[in-house]
Amino acid sequence: MPSEDVPEMFGTCQSAGLTDAEARRRLARFGPNVIATKEKAGTLALLLNQFMSPVVSLLAAAGALSLYFGDWQEATAIIAVLAINTGLGFSTELRAARSVEGLRALGTRSARVRRDGHARVLPAEDLVPGDIVLVEGGDAVPADIRLVEASNLGADESTLTGESVPVDKAPEPVAPDARLAERTCMLFRGTLITRGSGLGIVVATGLGTELGAVARLVAQAEPDTSPLERRLERLSRQMVWVILALALVLAGLGVATGKDLRLMTEAGIALAVAAIPEGLPVVATLALARGMWRMARRNALIERLSAVETLGATTVILTDKTGTLTENRMTVRWLLVPSGEADLTDPGSAAAETGRLLRVAVLCNDASLGQDSQQGSGDPMEQALLRAGRAVRLDRAALLRDRPLVGKHAFDAGTRMMATVHAVEPGHWVAVKGAPEAVLAASRSVGGAERDVPLDDGARDLWRRRVEDLAARGLRVIACAERSGGAAGGHPFRDLTFLGLVGLEDPARSDVPEALAACRAAGIRVVMVTGDHAVTALSIARAVGLAGRGDRVVEGGSTGEIPGRLDEVAVFARVSPAEKLSLVRAYQAKGEIVAMTGDGVNDAPALKQADIGVAMGRRGTDVAREAAAMILMDDAFPTIVGAIREGRIIFDNIRRFAAYLLACNLSEVMIVGLAIVSALPLPIQPLQILYLNVVTDVFPAFALAMCEGRDDILARPPRDPREPILGRPQWVRIVLHAAVLTVATFAGLAVAESWFGLDRASSVTVTFLTLAFAQLWQVFNMRASGAKPFRNEVTRNPWVWAALLLCTVLLVGPAYVPAAGKVLGLVPPDATMWAIILGASVAPLLLVQVGTMARGARGPVGRT
Predict the structure, then answer these.
(1) Beta 525-529 vs 316-319: how paired, if at all?
(2) Which residue of the set 126, 156, 320, 506 is catalytic?
(3) Spatial contact of 166 and 209, defined as CB atoms under 8 Å apart
(4) pLDDT tens, 741-795?
(5) What is the rounded CA–CA span in Å between residue 161 and residue 501?
(6) Is 320 one of the annotated active-site residues of the chain?
(7) CA distance 338 to 460
(8) Whose CA, among 65, 171, 304, 837, lies 20 to 30 Å from 79?
(9) What is the pTM for the complete model shown?
């Protein structure tokens, strides 16, 4: 259809859009503009998944053997343990799944829409057929849209059609039978605007879109699990086979030494169940989900789980200036016209030149303001220009009535300029704004109060010096120009009349210097990479403490010449998108782990290349968000530092509870294995192992995953990203801790039987509770080597104390409940037994703590 017929067909007004009341009616009729991008984790599916683990299979085998041997009490107990184990795994995975699903909801898209005659930013799911949508380079198309206006518009439709080359878009109709890739008058949901700007009418939403027909979204291409989780799962699978083989060997040795076949079979199965750290992936998922929520509360939205572990290893941050290091509160401070400086509040004799300059700034503009001039939508810089125009009674709507808009040339990174074409008598008038050097190069004259004069080389040099003077004050500088006459479709950037410069102030954020200091303490280098003028960038860099006297500033065009001297550069200015990508690769070639911030469509390649791409949530384009691994909802640099801290905490916590689980499980293997090899009676019974595994492996591990982290976690250098979760130092500690727990347990058994002559039931009770409480106290051995013994990340964690209290009740209770005690083979401990239990169980804690303090006194502070 001809574009002018489409609004009537959809019952909408191109200039005003739908009314709110009509939009609500259509939303009720057509439903929200959403596509189910990923099925919600089903409760039943998560429950059934619990029965697919090796632990459940082994427990079921143990129960079947008990039934075969006629031991109904033991079979009932095993079934109870199976139910508890399954229930804990199910509740944990359900909580983690719902947390991640809730996080995805925070990253909803928005769209710029005309409603009731005003441009508004609305959630994309609120769009309805007939809505008037405005798009520009960097946007993700929120629905299927029929274009009615377009300026230099191009779209990347590769995710929908497979065509890798961006498609030129225009309002002109196409043949009714045109293939999807040939429908140039349409924008399709899920595709990306690569350049230009346009206006169109929503013709389909949700499942009615072309994307809905194939039921897929480009934004959901990342894997469900992070490399960290996959490594933990692989570790668990590997240990399953090792432990199964060990259990078979030990059970065989037990039978060979004359022990009961049934007892050895059950012991082997129980030993395998106890030794396999099946809880590792589950607790890791919970820790990651909780960490992601903590980051989200601090305005850092993680788009990919893999970013969480990489954050803690970041060594270089390449950061933008505007809105990240500055407040993104653009205000016009100075106007520089041919006759001299003109203060906006008192233009004086330059009133005519000032009005001419601001007229261009207001009309060559895509932003909009509310009635109070404070609320608006669009680029903050363009909003500031509109406010400056209103200050001298130049309102965009009034100006457009006198000079109707007939064409637009959207900002392009190649030309670094934007232009609008307006109808005036007797022809057309072009308004241009952009980078000063680009506008100067395209100008042939300078606008004066009385007449225009030629722009010669001397005048160009003078204006360049004025640009540097404004930039030295920390101002962002843009230039404005105009041209009268010519056709509406002609080249806009030639033979311009230069009108002057606009200096905009964007003050540095007050919290940035502290964040930069934290980065330096953490061994992270911060480098400014901006498209702004070098003098302006350096002024801001010095204001926030990013650059010092000895640091270099490099302008775009020469970045390729300094790959060996990157450490000397604090600021890269006037950097093109290709140069940003080259910089990321240059730092990575030096072995750095790079976090890169960006907001525009041209930043997407660098964001994708970086180890951590960080997109701006407020001013960032959808293309940038698509390419990034993390989104800053407040666009603030300190948020990056907070996210890095959280990433380090998550990795430390996962390493901490993994070491705890493996040390406890290995101690059980050692105890049963030594008893079998040495032909001693089993110091701990199979059911006791199963019960102990449920209690001490679950709650303390969950509590350790909730640690808040060390106070000085940002005072240490970044870890090597190739460093495994459990390296050689951690495995040494795991084996040593397990050995100490094993010795303490046998010591308690020896004292109970040899010194006090306790009977078999009492000595087994002592052994069980000694090992149980020794494993509980083991949580305090999980503090970092350099942390204080009584005031550290573990002792400050209220979840740890709650877990210890709960586990104490669960461990001691069965001994005083006759029915439970009979099943588990426990008797109520008397004072003598408690003295042995407490003395033997505390000994490993004291021994490890003394060793930790001695090691810390000998050398540098170690890691968790």
Answers:
(1) parallel
(2) 320
(3) no
(4) 999 999 999 999 888 889 989 999 999 999 999 999 999 999 877 778 888 889 9
(5) 44
(6) yes
(7) 12
(8) 837
(9) 0.70
